[in-house]
Design brief:
single chain, alpha+beta, Beta-Lactamase, Heat Shock Protein 90, 7-stranded antiparallel β-sheet, 7-stranded mixed β-sheet, 23% strand
């Protein structure tokens, strides 16, 4: 059979694909789409799938192109091959798997349960390699009368697989760059937090001295013979007490990280509460409710504080933007070997368009935000085996974190 696209058309498309620079996730997706379309049109098949090889005998469909409706799909599907699979053996031993009749070819007989419902009669599959081993296979699936694959078509399928190998190699480089960029972003953010910690300690120390002087002056005001002066004392005392509580929170924030990889919720959260209240800029009232104050989680104090600071800042920004004003509730609940830490606000909530990618890097709805906050929180939580999720709170938003319990 002569390929519908013709050798000249194929070469032009292959050259365009080879020149495509995989420098972003969008470019990677575009390259995969191009490769599958080239395979479908050049070989005249209905379906072209990109399958990745997992754990030896398991294949996972990562991308599928169907020619009749020109549709690309990234829905995942898995096929598990038996330990004695002829298809699996051929995948590791051959340049191409040629099945003119999938019901007869020994390599594809075991795939009848997959082929029959889709009307697949012939297959021409070529493995692609990266990191020196088989990384997956490009499957060209013909629907209709059985095909007799020519040597030219087999060579073409192998060439497409070679293109897939190049795409995968470039994608690996892209992934490495992304990880490096993520690590750099986190180090930068961590450095800023460390700087803030030192700064807060210094400021707290200096202001504590000032407040001590004010408190000494208060004692004189209270015993003043002038009744108008004396009646100012209660209000001033209340203001000084509040300022002292805020400074205690500031100093505790600066001392974070001294307890190693374990944080006692009953110590960290109450001490941090005044600082969190200050961060809301009077947009909301912060409350803390602990079901088991003696419980400890698998995080250093600094990481736990950073999580709460980020979530409370986000919550207060949402409340300010929505002008609904109100409450931010921090709660903990112990469930076996897990502790659930939740932060809820009564702001306008998160739109469905943003909710699905809320924890992505650089995702933000705040025009002045960096898009690092929730992403960083997720990294911190997952590093210790925890999870984080967003839940609509009607009204507002609720972030739920589950962390492993640490022995007290």
């Amino acid at each position: 059979m002569v390929a519908p696209g013709g050798p000249v058309a194929f070469e032009a498309e292959r050259l365009a694909l080879a020149q495509l620079q995989i420098d972003s996730n969008e470019a990677y997706e575009r390259a995969v789409r191009m490769a599958t379309e080239i395979g479908a049109h050049a070989l005249g098949v209905e379906r072209v799938g990109v399958w990745h090889l997992l754990d030896g005998n398991e294949l996972e469909l990562r991308h599928l192109y169907t020619a009749s409706d020109r549709r690309h799909s990234t829905e995942r599907e898995r096929l598990t091959l038996s330990e004695t699979s002829a298809y699996g053996a051929a995948l590791h031993a051959r340049r191409a798997i040629v099945a003119n009749d999938v019901t007869v070819a020994p390599e594809t007989v075991e795939l009848d349960y997959y082929c029959r419902p889709l009307g697949i009669t012939s297959m021409l599959d070529a493995p692609f390699y990266y990191r020196g081993t088989v990384g997956g296979v490009i499957c060209h699936e013909h629907v209709g009368p059985k095909r007799i694959w020519s040597q030219a078509e087999i060579d073409l399928a192998c060439s497409i697989a070679d293109m897939a190998a190049v795409i995968c190699s470039q994608a690996q480089v892209l992934d490495a760059k992304e990880r490096l960029r993520d690590a750099t972003a986190r180090r930068l953010d961590g450095s800023r937090v460390e700087t803030l910690a030192h700064l807060s300690t210094a400021i707290g120390h200096e202001l504590s001295n000032t407040l001590t002087s004010i408190q000494l002056a208060m004692l004189r005001i209270q015993v003043s013979s002038d009744p108008k002066v004396a009646e100012l004392a209660p209000a001033l005392a209340k203001s000084v007490t509040l300022a002292t509580e805020l400074l205690d929170g500031l100093k505790n924030f600066g001392r974070a990280g001294t307890s190693g990889s374990k944080s006692r919720l009953g110590e960290v959260l109450p001490a941090l509460a005044p600082m969190l209240q200050l961060l809301t800029r009077d947009a909301a009232r912060v409350t803390v409710e602990l079901d088991e104050p003696a419980a400890a989680v698998a995080l250093p104090d600094s990481d736990l504080q950073q999580i709460l600071v980020n979530l409370v800042i986000n919550a207060s920004n949402a409340i300010l933007a929505g002008k609904t004003g109100g409450k931010i509730e921090i709660r903990t609940r112990t469930h076996g070997d897990k502790i659930e830490l939740s932060v809820r606000d009564d702001g306008p909530g998160v739109s469905p368009a943003v909710a699905d990618r809320l924890f992505g890097l650089y995702v933000t709805t705040n025009p002045h935000g960096t898009g690092l906050g929730l992403w960083l929180v997720k990294q911190i939580v997952e590093e210790v085996g925890g999870t984080i999720r967003y839940e609509p709170a009607a009204p507002g938003a609720r972030f739920v974190i589950e962390l492993p319990v640490r022995a007290r």
